[in-house]
Specification:
It is built from 8 helices and 4 strands, in the order ββββαααααααα. The protein starts with 12 loop residues before the first strand and ends in an 11-residue tail after the last helix. The protein is about 55% helix and about 10% strand. It has a domain of about 130 residues. The protein has a 4-stranded antiparallel sheet. Helix 1 packs across helix 2, helix 1 packs across helix 5 and helix 2 packs antiparallel against helix 6. By secondary structure, the chain is an alpha+beta fold.
Length: about 190
């Protein structure tokens, strides 16, 4: 069965980069808050956790895993599901780009590596907004934080980290998060 992939529109686009690479939110297989990407050739895909974990792991080997994780933490802390309702992605994305620029100024990350870092962090932001919107997902964006912690700070293989939470129940995942981060704030009820 051929699956009809959604297309970006003015109402569902989170960001379009200069090269026309687009990140957008639309109904998917699981719920109405799925994240998709469209490459400059117009091909729409689901972002793959393994791919962007691998990209960040490569950057971490060159610039330091803690350095990359700290940038991610800035993005994590800026993530808010109200951006979806208020359509205020641009404000948060501007803050993310500023934070990346502040971090990378001393490391002189430029060119393709800076583009990969920026695009991946904005993609992670988009995915975490989506996870915060999902019903029956009380950990929300904390699952992405857990995976990033495992890849960047514990050296877990990106494939294993991407699949770590599959089939695990909430109490087990909550324990895994609190073991690493201390206290974990659960999602708040959505504002309508």
């Amino acid at each position: 069965m051929l699956i009809q992939m959604p297309r970006p529109t003015a109402n569902n686009t989170i960001v379009t980069f200069n090269d026309k690479f687009t990140i957008f939110i639309a109904p998917g297989n699981q719920d109405e808050y799925s994240i998709f990407t469209m490459n400059p050739a117009g091909i729409v895909n689901f972002p793959e956790d393994v791919k962007y974990f691998q990209d960040l792991q490569i950057l971490g080997k060159k610039y330091g895993n803690r350095f990359i994780y700290d940038i991610f933490l800035d993005v994590y802390n800026l993530t808010n599901y109200n951006d979806y309702y208020e359509k205020s992605y641009d404000t948060t994305i501007g803050k993310i780009i500023n934070r990346i620029n502040e971090h990378t100024f001393l490391k002189t990350i430029v060119g393709d590596e800076l583009q990969t870092l920026t695009r991946t962090m904005i993609l992670l932001y988009s995915i975490m907004v989506s996870e915060e919107l999902r019903e029956n997902a009380p950990l929300g964006k904390n699952l992405k934080r857990l995976s990033m912690y495992q890849v960047m700070l514990e050296g877990m293989n990106p494939v294993d980290a991407a699949n770590f939470s599959r089939g695990k129940k909430f109490p087990t995942l909550m324990q895994e998060c609190t073991k690493r981060f201390g206290s974990v704030s659960l999602k708040k009820e959505k504002r309508f």
